[in-house]
Model the fold of this input.
Amino acid sequence: MFFTTDLHIHSDYPAQADRLSVMRECAAAARKNGLETIGFSEHYWNRAFPGKGRYYEDRGPETLREIREAVRMLQEETSLKILTGCESEYGMDGTIPLTEEDLSLLDYVVVPHSHLNYIGVTAPHDYTDHWKECAEYMVQTFRGVTSHPLADRITVLAHPFEPVGYGEHQNEILRWIPDTQFRECVREARDKGIALEINSLTVHGFSPEELVRSEWVRFYTIAREEGCTFVYGSDLHGTAQFAYKKLAETVAGEAGITDEMMLQI
Ligand SMILES: [Zn+2]
Ligand SMILES: [Zn+2]
Done:
């Protein structure tokens, strides 16, 4: 399996650098790594929705317009296809903080359901050593996204079932989710036309051998059997992270995912 589209690139990590030059670097690195289509998806919580906490900046559609303009300028310089997205959020109370105006500015929409590290905003409390409860919360939030009124406007579910913040315990946590539950969840995503991301940052801590035996292969095999659509996401926070792309390709290959099952955008 070789991915040629990556819809999950962050470009606002070095606060001192201007957006367009960071995007330019990302595009050059993407090309070197065999990508043909890339999308920029910054974290975004529209200020019109309460509850964003401290981590999210006070943003509105003007931010998306700025990104769109940078994408337009970058598109003039490159033969790669460049898209404007955002990584929105799924709040603890079920909020997906996007307005209609936001949606009109986006080529695609990425929504995560498992930012468990953002306690008080997207997770109710710390789950350390409560792995079963952690797994149950992720099942609940996955279904919260797929049953949300905006579900059919969502393009990609970001890093599905990645217990963000508990990277070392991924297998331990996912073991609590039986096949039947994975199946019910992915069917809902499939029916709403939401592609499941295969995120290379999620799996960057595994060796290829460990990955083949990991819970990720079980999850993506079930999703493939249920007829889901998939998309690659590097979740790039620095171009060196393209080094993990191969690991995501390994997961896809082991799960039997083929080119025809990848999102066409
Ligand atoms: Zn994320
Ligand atoms: Zn991200």
Remarks:
- The two ends are 18 Å apart (CA to CA).
- The pocket of zinc ion (ligand 1) is lined by residues 87, 112, 115, 158-159 (CB under 6 Å).
